[in-house]
Amino acid sequence: MNPLKIGLIGYGGIGRVHALAYRSIPFYYGLPADSVQVAGVATTHAESARKAAQEIGCEFWTADYRELLARPDIDVVDVTVPNVAHAEIVVAAAQAGKHIYCEKPLAMNVAEAQRMVAAANAAGVKTQMTFNFRFFPAIIRARQLMDEGFLGKIFSFRGRYYRSSYIDPLKPISWRQQRAVAGGGVLFDLGSHVLDLLYYLLGDFDQVQAVMETLITERPAAANVQETVAVDVDDIVFMHARMADGTLGLVESSRMGTGSPNELVVEIFGEKGALRFDAQDPSWLQVYDVRDANKPLGGLRGMTKVETVGRYEGARSPDWSMAPSFVRAHAECQYQFLKAVAEDGPAAPTLADGLHIQAVMAAAETSSREARWVRVAEMEERTS
User: Fold this and answer.
1) Whole-prediction pTM
2) For 4-131, CATH number?
3) Do residues 125 and 94 touch, judged by C-beta distance below 8 A?
4) What residues have CB less than 8 Å from 88, skipping those under 6 apart?
């Protein structure tokens, strides 16, 4: 892979994960250390940018992302800032001719997402979304089995992502709980991951029916203060979904999932079998084969744990038998994008894929507000 230099815009919790993953890529694939290099970092404050550069080990830092975009040595821009700033930065990066790697969700709304996709298309740059759960080997194996027809006709599906991150009403409010900065709540933050996995495995969404609630309506403005701030985004979402091929399923997402530190589960049920992925047990894909269950005496009836572990094509370290991690999945998502840039190949999931997920989320919000089924195309047509 030809050496590539990355400009990292934003260095909060997820920005640090991205930097860690970039640094690890050469070790995974036996590449020279300079093959993947974060060459500059931009944050909103000079002091935080300077500290970020020290952690990352890059010489250039700035409090103005435009200075980063102006550098001719930057090949790829990685956007990890709060959602409200995605559109401005992505459009500017495209106009500067930079390839774009963007955190989810793509934008604050569908109109913004459409502008971002149009800017990238006009500039002819490659793009990719950070939907890192696609890059667990178990999900890759699930897609392979489905492409081979293992499930036969799909009957239904379920996807859920539960965390317990906001069950304490005294936990101070964050930008993720303010619509003006985040655009949406748990559906944008966690639900987008589930929606992308279902999209990756089952294809386009056609229409949705959703109920969204805010369970704790105000929170402290900061730690150890009496002042409170209204929470104006969703804490929990329940959604019925119909895919383009007519398949029905359920999607749930909650940041109020007591006892669930980080539980993402996807299940797909078909006439010949079923698949189940649990991100808390990432070395395995659970598989049910009706053909085996129909053997005399029931065969080996029941879900079977199929070994997937760290099976990444071309990886040299660690040994394939090691369990994949959250950071490893991020690194693979980044590596596949950088490889597409270096070799001028296709990248996925693109900003256009992120736009489809944005439209699904907009349909869910409209459905919850108007108490009806809403077609995803309706959201795209309203703003185009």
Assistant:
1) 0.96
2) 3.40.50.720
3) yes
4) none
